[in-house]
Design goal:
Elements: H1 10-49, E1 56-59, E2 64-67, H2 81-84, E3 86-92, E4 95-100, H3 105-110, H4 121-147
Antiparallel strand pairs: 1-2, 3-4
Length: 148
Amino acid sequence: MKTEIKVTNINKVLASFKKLNVTMLPDLQDIIKGGAQTIRTEAINLIQKGAKSGRTYKKYNPSRTHTASAPGQAPASDTGNLVRNIKVIQVNQDVTQVASGARYSKELEFGTSKMRARPFMFPAYKMSQDKILKATFLRVVKVIEGIV
């Protein structure tokens, strides 16, 4: 069995690829930033809107009733500190981080010897993957259509 591929106008194709390389950089940077914002939004939604089925107890100062998250669920929002501390940080033009600056973030995400994990960042990343891939694909197609 023999397969043959014939490319016509190869110089035009190569010139388009060179142009694409230069043209795509700002678009890819936008996608990286947008993807980070998507992950941040998902993490916040998991904390604020996700169902919580842990222990319910009374808290004071200010007085309120709070339902905690069960192990494996995203943390339940109480004071809003965790949500306020989830930030998108531009490290350089190619790297953007989503980080939680709350001092107890690591313990919630991974658990401790006395508390099982209440992950919120990794699930947010997993939930955002398809959206980010789709946005990347659509942007690449748009740029290619603009070149050809």
